[in-house]
Amino acid sequence: MKFKFSIFNIFKRKNNKKETSANLFLNIRDIQNNFLYTIDNKVIAYLKIFPRNCKLMTPDEKIAHSKTLTSNLASELKKFKIFITNRPVDLQKNQDFQAYLMDKETNSNKFALLNQRAKSFGILSTTGKALESEIYMMIWEKNDDGVEQSLLKRLNELTMKFTNSGYKTRILEDKEIIQLVDSYTNPSFAYTENQNYLEGALKLKV
Question: pLDDT grade, residue 54 (50/70/90)?
């Protein structure tokens, strides 16, 4: 399997064929609380940005929204990265619910619409296109004294900027950071919905 993890900028590519651990290959020393610690002495933190459907906006609303977002982020002068990843979505519950509604429906027109929706869910499931885009912002600093407090302060400031722009956000904790890393190394096991993820296959500690 070919690994590609360039957006995190924490790969250390090696030309030799010596065996190495997953932690060393990914340049990960540890993941604790809200931070990923790299072997090359960096500390990384992540902010999840919940997307908005701008397609529902009028052209004037889109212009106003972009100006508001630009204005709120204009003071952000330090380096950061924004990247989008696609999360696999399990549509089985949706399909079961559509089947339940169809069994109860007596109106032929409504039944036809429900059947059409059920077929669309089936197509998404069988073609592997059942994906949900997720947006993340990554910030980092050198691992010096007080780096965690500095990064958390910046994350909270970014949270306020995005809130003022109409976006919901969440600062990632260790379980979510591990899921995010694992989504790039093990795509077929990218996400689990329970809260016991640290008991799963990937544990990143040395």
Answer: confident
Query: What is the Cα–Cα distance from 192 to 180, expressed in whole angstroms?
Result: 11
Give the pLDDT confidence of 98-129 residue by residue, as tens digits: 888 888 888 888 888 888 888 887 777 676 66
**What residues does CATH 3.30.1460 cover in the chain?**
24-89+132-187
Cβ–Cβ contacts within 10 Å for residue 55, how many?
6
The 8-class DSSP code of residue 166 comes to T
Which pair of structure tokens corresponds to residue 77?
A: 């002068």
Number of H helices, E strands in the chain: 6, 6
Diameter of the chain by CA atoms?
68
Q: What is the CA radius of gyration of the chain?
A: 21
Q: Two tokens at 104?
A: 């109860």
CATH topology for 24-89+132-187 is: Yope Regulator; Chain: A, (3.30.1460)
What is the predicted pLDDT for the residue at 98?
A: 83
Q: Which residue has the higher pLDDT, 199 or 83?
A: 83
Q: What is the DSSP letter of 33?
A: T
